[in-house]
Amino acid sequence: MDSEQIQQIIDHLWPTGDTLSGPQVYAVLDGARDRRIEPMVRLSRLERTCLYSGRLSARMQAAAPYVVHLARDARFTRELLEASWGKSWGFFTIVPVDMTLEQHRRHFKKLLRVKDESGRTLMFRFYDPRVLRLYLPSCTRDEAKQFFGQIPQIITEAEDSNTLLTYRVKGRGVHEQRLTLQTKPAGAEHN
User: Would you call 101 exposed, middle or buried from its count of C-beta atoms within 10 A (0-12, 13-18, 19+)?
Assistant: First the structure.
């Protein structure tokens, strides 16, 4: 992933810039995907929370899902994209300015457990983009509304890391929009 592609992702997440009165961007990260995630989140200096409650062992903290309120120009944002894009670390949400981190956490926390056809409770690893990409297109309108809640957009990488996916509730379920990230031509130099 080159720096121009990272900038395209940043521009897509913050199309009108990063303002306190505009939409806010959050990352929902799967700590189990890479041992670097939890320390990066903890040291980010950004507002963050864990989706799991209570006292967690060090092992559980390392593997837990996290929500981080991103800032366009924060060093963590660029470092996160450079380290994670194409590696299924998580996804991004664009939410209304009045949605707090705690509201975001409570919403996603409700989705952590689901029941299968036999009534068994299972963990729903929706924060893994590989799961999310399969689940969202299969949603009915009611399932989509429940999953998205007040979240207008969810953004993640495609199987091909040169493609960005945007999901929205629309029509009978979820609409997927694909954006191909432009690569720097071979031999192109910065001036």
Answer: middle
